[in-house]
């Protein structure tokens, strides 16, 4: 039986959405595997983390209790030692900024391979992890089979759709107090200052309205924000719109931006390059508004509207 360990990133509310996505995907899709999770938690988070994961369908939840502030050195040390002591076949981390910081360090400490930023995962008939990620600038999808153990991958937030599971088994919760030899640490984290980041969890919104280069100007891109304000949707942008300075990088969707999984994604003036489409493959419905009826996004949409994006936005705004 394959033993899978998911590192669960936490905040004051318990497990973060990106980690829950991996847990729920594994529990729902790899039924013959043993699915465990490990979280590094401070005492004050214990209750929230326990509550968020006790009904997730896991076999074992390891709470690695550590009250020090987040430090890459401490966290990668704790997880590496945990993996050495508790053998697993597969190890998965969400490719959040924190996950991307930890994963290569853990791979280096354990001298194992790492498939970073996967958009799909699977288990083959030999119980091996199939880790799929875009390659050659997003033109191909490569499925990588690591030869080192645990087979290790990071998974893009939003790439695996979260589905609530209805567990039949109880999760075994194990608390551990990892030892840290502070004399060996090379650095000490003194404090954190939280940046005022807008739209922290916009990637899971029900409706996302996105704009691309076809909007023609920053002024026209403002219509995306206006329609979002009126409808409660969240704004998003193609990379071109970001590079033109019309939108913040924090709302870019696609291979080098975010993956999103809304019920409805409306794309105005976006061509639908593969690198953009990879970020919206989990959207339930896509509507595209484009003057070119042959634009790739029109083939990938549930409703393709051949029209001027700016005029359509203005009409929708005046009717809202
Ligand atoms: C390694 C790599 C990573 C990348 N990562 C990303 C990523 O994360 N996200 C991303 O989006 N891209 C990414 N790209 C870029 C991607 O290849 C495309 O260049 C980009 O998505 C195009 O943006 P766009 O659709 O806004 O612009 P364009 O491709 O220029 O398309 C504009 C569209 O607007 C239409 N249009 C023009 N005028 C109007 C009008 N008045 N009304 C309606 N429609 C109109 C046009 O017909 C066209 O289809 C990446 C590229 C590489 C190489």
Report on the architecture of this protein:
The chain is α/β, with parallel strands linked by helices and 320 residues long. It folds into two domains: 3-184, Rossmann fold, CATH 3.40.50.620; 202-319, Rossmann fold. The chain is 27% helix and 26% strand. It has helices spanning 17-29, 46-53, 72-85, 97-110, 218-231, 239-243, 274-277, 296-299, 309-319, and strands spanning 3-7, 10-11, 14-15, 34-41, 60-65, 90-94, 115-118, 120-123, 129-135, 140-144, 151-155, 172-176, 207-211, 234-237, 264-268, 285-290, 303-306. The strands form four sheets. Strands 7-11-6-1-4-5-12 form a seven-stranded parallel β-sheet, with helices on both faces. It has a five-stranded parallel β-sheet with strand order 14-13-15-16-17. Strand 2 and strand 3 form a beta hairpin. Helix 3 (72-85) packs across helix 4 (97-110) and helix 5 runs parallel beside helix 9 (309-319). The radius of gyration is 21 Å and the shape is elongated. The mean pLDDT is 93. Flavin-adenine dinucleotide binds next to helix 6, helix 7, strand 16 and helix 9. Flavin-adenine dinucleotide binds at residues 137-138, 212-214, 238-241, 252-257, 269-271, 273, 275-276, 279, 289-292, 295, 308-310.
CATH architecture of the largest domain: 3-Layer(aba) Sandwich
What are the low-pLDDT stretches, counting only 5+ consecutive residues below 50?
A: none
State the helicity in percent bands. Answer: 25-40%
Report Rg.
Answer: 21 Å
Number of helices: 9
Q: Please indicate the percent range of residues in DSSP E strands (runs of 2 or more).
A: 25-35%
The CATH topology of the largest domain: Rossmann fold
Overall 3D shape: elongated
The spatial strand order of the largest sheet comes to 7-11-6-1-4-5-12
CATH hierarchy, class of the largest domain? Alpha Beta
Mean pLDDT: 93
How many domains make up the coordinates? 2
Largest sheet: 7 strands, parallel
Instruction: Quickly give the structural class.
Output: alpha/beta
Quick one: CATH superfamily of the largest domain? Answer: HUPs
N-to-C SSE string, H for helix and E for strand: EEEHEHEHEHEEEEEEEHEHEHEHEH
The count of DSSP E runs of length 2 or more, i.e. the number of strands, is 17
Our measurement of the CA-to-CA distance between the termini, rounded to an integer number of angstroms, reads 55 Å
Molecules bound to protein: flavin-adenine dinucleotide
């Amino acid at each position: 039986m394959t033993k899978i360990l998911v590192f669960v990133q936490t905040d004051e509310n318990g497990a973060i959405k990106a980690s829950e996505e991996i847990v729920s995907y594994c529990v729902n899709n790899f039924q013959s595997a043993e699915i465990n999770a490990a979280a590094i938690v401070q005492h004050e988070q214990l209750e929230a983390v326990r509550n968020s994961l006790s009904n997730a369908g896991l076999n074992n939840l390891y709470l690695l209790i550590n009250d020090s502030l987040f430090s890459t050195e401490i966290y990668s040390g704790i997880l590496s030692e945990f993996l050495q002591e508790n053998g697993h076949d597969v190890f998965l981390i969400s490719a959040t900024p924190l996950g991307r910081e930890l994963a290569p360090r853990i791979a280096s400490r354990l001298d194992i391979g790492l498939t970073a930023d996967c958009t799909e995962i699977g288990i083959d008939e030999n119980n091996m992890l199939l880790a799929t990620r875009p390659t050659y600038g997003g033109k191909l999808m490569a499925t990588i089979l690591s030869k080192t153990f645990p087979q290790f991958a990071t998974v893009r937030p939003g790439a695996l759709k979260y589905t609530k599971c209805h567990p039949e088994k109880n999760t075994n919760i194990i608390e551990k107090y990892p030892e840290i030899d502070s004399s060996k640490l090379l650095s000490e984290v003194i404090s954190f200052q939280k940046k005022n980041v807008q739209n922290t969890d916009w990637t899971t919104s029900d409706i996302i309205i996105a704009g691309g280069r076809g909007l023609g100007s920053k002024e026209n891109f403002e219509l995306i924000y206006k329609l979002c304000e009126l409808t409660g949707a969240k704004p998003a942008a193609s990379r071109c719109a970001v590079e033109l300075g019309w939108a913040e990088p924090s709302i870019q969707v696609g291979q080098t931006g975010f993956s999103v999984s809304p019920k409805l994604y409306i794309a105005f003036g976006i061509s639908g390059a593969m690198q953009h489409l990879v970020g919206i493959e989990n959207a339930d419905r896509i509507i595209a508004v484009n003057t070119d009826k042959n634009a790739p996004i029109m083939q990938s949409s549930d409703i393709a509207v051949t029209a001027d994006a700016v005029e359509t936005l203005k009409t929708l705004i005046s009717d809202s």
